Prior knowledge:
The protein is of the alpha/beta class.
Amino acid sequence: MNIISTRHMKRSFIEEVLERTKKMDPVAESKKQLDILEGKILATLFFEPSTRTNLSFTTAMKMLGGTVIGFDNPRTSSVKKGETLADTIRVVQSYANAIVMRHPNEGAAALAAEFTNIPIINAGDGSNQHPTQALLDLYTILKEKHKIDGLEITLAGDLKYGRTIHSLAYALGKFDVSIVFASPPALRIQRWIINDLKSAGISVKETDNIETTSDVLYLTRIQKERFPDIEEYQKVASAYVLNEESLKKIGKETMIMHPLPRVNEITPEIDHDKRAKYFVQSSYGIPTRMAILSMVMGD
Ligand code: NCD
């Protein structure tokens, strides 16, 4: 089983992940180790920087009793010598039971899956997809709002290059939700994603304003590293800032989410607000990834 994208993920699969995550949640909180994946090895191949995703996969694997190998800096691996992705994958498959991979190229995870029979988990492929983030985002919504169906969710910030947005939009599209896309005009979401969601019966709106009373406001970082031209980045770098002042215009019950890292789009002064849930959200990365690893590698 591979986890490459949320685009064609079935609602029943997502629900199974959420159900398992709920079971893993108290285990993650108590930091007690299980033995479900004892004797199994996970390879984490990070061709791009990561803090949360890498550490939470590693923690999740160890909490399930497994072992982790891998690299988080391609400059110190043979990639630097010009090894192809295909060769790296062919070699690593004989060392590990599954691979978690982050890569700057869109489609890299799907490509890797063509060269191996061991499970590939996409931890981000360029600006395309980041499916395990979307699953932990859904778990956060379910846990904090007690449901997903019936909610209105505003996805804001860099909708063009943000892979967390693309994954979450498609994952939400399996539920009965309304989605509002809020971005500067230059960073609007791709037309085909809007079309896919509309064909799935989702109510979709677009705006350039983040003042919202939606049930959830999901903010994202402007993805500086994806801009072909730094001047284009500078024009939109401070498009949205959620601070004490702008927070007054957000709904009283609107949950504020962010995949992190944040740069300047949420000021630390609002961290104490009861609506701010981004640190709780990142903590759900552990039980969600425990659930995913147990489904992918468990017996
Ligand atoms: C995100 C990513 O890598 O896409 N980070 C994460 O995994 N939480 C978001 C980002 O980098 O902006």
